[in-house]
């Protein structure tokens, strides 16, 4: 069954399906119940599943994740919503020192199937603390699975896979893509859904590999279309998963094209693109025709909304990096 859904609605349908399939799945966070979330991603879930399974929490991110850990220890599968990306840092202690480490600390005896949903990135004209890209912090933390959807079809399948995972998952959602629509197959068994951690070639090409995830994927597809008009063929890969990383798919593409550009909204310095560049250099050194180039935000705090168009990587900055790969 194919249905046209926005990315936000696809997440809603994915959570709904998971809650129908497993009574131990809970949704919790600030304003997720009666309001349906500030982006309306959880709209209608409390009405249909009740206040005991869709829980409006206090404004206390550390408490939200800490409570979810306790619930997971009791056999539940909590899905926590962090209202905005910049609000996750009060919960960092619980995520990094407790959620990520419990499995190893217990020698495998304890599993914490907790999903932490984080609307991420800029592009919505928000105020300070509402447009961050904190993925590198969590990808660096062993014990966490870190994924990022970029479109409605992936949003639906990935959230279902994440909720079913026995391990904690940090789930990034590109907030400026919440209203993008796509065809979504909603009548699929969990066992038939794509692997949560497999990268996807979303635009085949021969000249340059362009790696992206989350909100940057659409920007890179637009750049690929523009490059095609100029006679260059870009292969765009949606990483989907940052940890674990599907290195094999990346390596196969870069070994064939010989050039690579990495794009993300987070600052370039020490961003996730640095890990990608290092991995590609290690595995494709003798196949590279040029250094791996990175396109991202600047090493400044996220700017006021009137300046964010200058901060965020756009089509022109991606194409400029593509041009520079041919200068070597």
* Structural class computed from helices and strand pairing: alpha/beta
What sort of overall outline do the alpha carbons produce when their principal axes are compared? globular
How far is the N terminus from the C terminus? 48 Å
- Beta-strand share of residues: 15-25%
Mean pLDDT: 97
Total individual domains? 2
Keywords: Oxidoreductase, Thiamine pyrophosphate
Protein name: Alpha-ketoacid dehydrogenase subunit beta
GO molecular function, one term: oxidoreductase activity
Pfam family, one: Transket_pyr
General description of the model:
Its cofactor is thiamine diphosphate. The structure is a single chain. This protein is of the alpha/beta class. The chain folds into 2 domains: 2-185, 3-Layer(aba) Sandwich (Rossmann fold); 200-325, Rossmann fold (3-Layer(aba) Sandwich), CATH 3.40.50. The protein has 12 helices and 14 strands. The strands form 3 sheets. A 7-stranded mixed sheet has the order 3-2-4-5-7-6-12, sandwiched between helices. Helix 8 (216-229) links the parallel strand 10 and strand 11 (234-238). Helix 1 (7-21) runs parallel beside helix 7, helix 3 runs parallel beside helix 4 and helix 8 crosses helix 12 (315-325). The N and C termini lie far apart (48 Å). The relative contact order is 0.12.
């Amino acid at each position: 069954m194919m249905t046209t859904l926005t990315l936000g609605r696809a997440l809603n349908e994915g959570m709904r399906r998971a809650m129908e399939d497993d009574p131990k799945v809970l949704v919790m966070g600030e304003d997720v119940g009666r309001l349906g979330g500030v982006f309306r991603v959880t709209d209608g879930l409390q009405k249909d599943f009740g206040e005991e399974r869709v829980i409006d929490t206090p404004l206390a991110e550390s408490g939200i994740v800490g409570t979810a850990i306790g619930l997971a220890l009791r056999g539940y599968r909590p899905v926590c919503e962090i209202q905005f990306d910049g609000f996750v840092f009060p919960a960092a202690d619980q995520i990094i020192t407790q959620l990520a480490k419990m499995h190893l600390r217990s020698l495998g005896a304890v599993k914490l199937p907790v999903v932490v949903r984080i609307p991420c990135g800029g592009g919505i004209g928000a105020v300070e603390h509402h447009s961050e890209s904190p993925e590198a912090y969590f990808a660096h933390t062993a014990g966490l699975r870190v994924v990022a959807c970029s479109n409605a079809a992936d949003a639906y399948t990935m959230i279902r896979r994440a909720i079913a995972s026995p391990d904690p998952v940090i789930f990034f959602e590109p907030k400026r893509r919440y209203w993008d629509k796509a065809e979504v197959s909603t009548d699929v068994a969990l066992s038939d859904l794509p692997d949560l951690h497999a990268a996807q070639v979303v635009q085949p090409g021969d000249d340059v590999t362009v790696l992206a995830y989350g909100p940057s994927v659409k920007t890179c597809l637009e750049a690929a279309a523009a490059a095609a008009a100029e006679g260059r063929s870009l292969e765009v890969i949606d990483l989907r998963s940052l940890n674990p990383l599907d290195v094999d798919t990346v390596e196969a593409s870069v070994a064939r094209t010989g050039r690579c550009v990495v794009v993300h909204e987070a600052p370039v310095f020490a961003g996730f693109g640095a890990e990608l560049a290092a991995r590609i250099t290690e595995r494709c050194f003798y196949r590279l025709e040029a250094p791996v180039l990175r396109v991202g935000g600047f090493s400044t705090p996220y700017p006021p909304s009137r300046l964010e168009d200058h901060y965020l990587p756009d089509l022109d900055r991606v194409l400029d990096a593509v041009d520079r790969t041919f200068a070597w």
